[in-house]
Design brief:
By secondary structure, the protein is an alpha+beta fold. About 35% of the residues lie in helices and about 30% in strands. It has one domain: YaeB-like fold (2-Layer Sandwich), CATH 3.30.2310. Strand 4 and strand 5 form a beta hairpin. The radius of gyration is 13 Å and the shape is globular. The two termini are about 25 Å apart.
């Protein structure tokens, strides 16, 4: 079972209910790979763009996990700084299996709703 909060050397990662539901619906290999990337985020100041990348024209980042031909994405919000490299706290808002670039607009809108509910 995934925790609600991970604290590391560089930053704390908080998980929304929507992300936890997504995570719980995945298989063990997918969960292990996502946890690996979460560990990178909490323990390393610099994160390679193959794992976390800024979503253009938004306030969000995406956490990226590729397993075979499947690409899992999670919308990430940097709580205390505009730049995730400088952030000490980030929120994983919602995850999805990327099927096309059309998924992003819907997922970004969902993330905005989650963020409003969290009152961050």
């Amino acid at each position: 079972m995934i925790e609600d909060r991970y604290a590391g050397k560089e930053r704390t990662v908080l998980l929304s209910k929507a992300f936890k539901e997504f995570f719980d619906g995945l298989g063990s290999q997918e969960q292990n790979n996502i946890e690996y990337v979460i560990d990178l985020i909490i323990d390393h100041k610099l994160i390679h763009t193959s794992f976390v990348k800024k979503l253009i024209d938004t306030e969000f980042y995406e956490m990226r996990v590729k397993i075979g031909y499947n690409e899992y994405r999670t919308i990430v919000f940097s709580v205390d700084h505009d730049n995730i490299i400088e952030a000490t706290k980030v929120y994983l808002l919602n995850g999805f299996l990327k099927k096309s670039t059309k998924d992003y607009k819907k997922q970004i809108n969902r993330s905005k709703t989650i963020l409003e509910e969290l009152k961050l």
